[in-house]
Write a structure and sequence with these properties.
With 163 residues, the chain is an alpha+beta fold. It is built from 4 helices and 8 strands; from the N terminus they run αββαβαβββββα. A 5-stranded antiparallel sheet has the order 7-6-5-4-8.
C-alpha cells in the first residue's frame, strides 16, 4: 500500500504550525526506498535551513507513527523551479507559465497536455495549447503536473519567489 496520503495527512498540520505548506509526498520503492517531502513557505520560498527544520520535525513524527515498516531514506526539498503543481492555488500562482499536465482519465481521447496555464475555474484547470486550442481539464482527475523550465520562468524566479 502506498503510504503517501497517510503521511501527508499526518505531517501537514505540523508543517503548517511551523509556517510551511506541504507541496507533495512521494515514496519510491525498490532496493533503495526514498520518502520525499516537498514543502515551502507560503511565499514560495524554502531555504536549506528550512529543509533541515522540516526534516527534523517530520523525522520525529515518522518515528512515533511508523507508517513505513521497511528501511527508507527521508529527503526534504523545495519544489524547485520546474516545480510540481499539486494544489489548485498552484495553477493560479503560476498562471501565464507553461506546464505539462497529465490526467488519470482521458479528456477528448487525450491524457497528456502541454500549454500555458490560464488559471483554474470551478475545479477546472485552464490551459492554452495554442491560439486555437484551449483546454478545461478537471483538477479532480489530475495525475501529475509540473512547470516547464523556460527562459520566462527562470526570469520570473530570479528575484526570489512568486506569490
Amino acid at each position: 500500500m502506498d503510504p503517501t496520503q497517510k503521511i501527508a495527512d499526518m505531517i501537514a498540520p505540523t508543517l503548517e504550525s511551523m509556517g510551511y505548506e506541504l507541496v507533495r509526498v512521494t515514496f519510491t520503492g525498490g532496493e533503495h526506498q526514498i520518502l520525499q517531502i516537498m514543502a515551502e513557505k507560503e511565499d514560495g520560498t524554502m531555504t536549506i535551513e528550512g529543509c533541515e527544520e522540516v526534516s527534523r520535525a517530520v523525522s520525529v513524527l515518522l518515528d512515533v507513527e511508523d507508517p513505513i515498516s521497511e528501511a527508507y531514506d527521508l529527503e526534504v526539498s523545495s519544489p524547485g523551479i520546474d516545480r510540481p503543481l499539486t494544489r489548485e492555488k498552484d495553477f493560479e500562482r503560476w498562471s501565464g507559465f507553461e506546464a505539462k499536465v497529465e490526467l488519470q482519465e482521458a479528456v477528448d481521447g487525450q491524457r497528456r497536455y502541454r500549454g500555458i496555464i490560464l488559471g483554474i475555474n470551478e475545479g477546472m484547470i485552464l490551459l492554452q495549447e495554442n491560439a486555437d486550442k484551449k483546454w478545461e481539464l478537471p483538477f479532480a482527475d489530475l495525475r501529475k503536473a509540473k512547470l516547464v523550465l523556460t527562459d520566462d520562468l527562470i526570469a520570473a524566479t530570479q528575484g526570489g519567489s512568486r506569490s
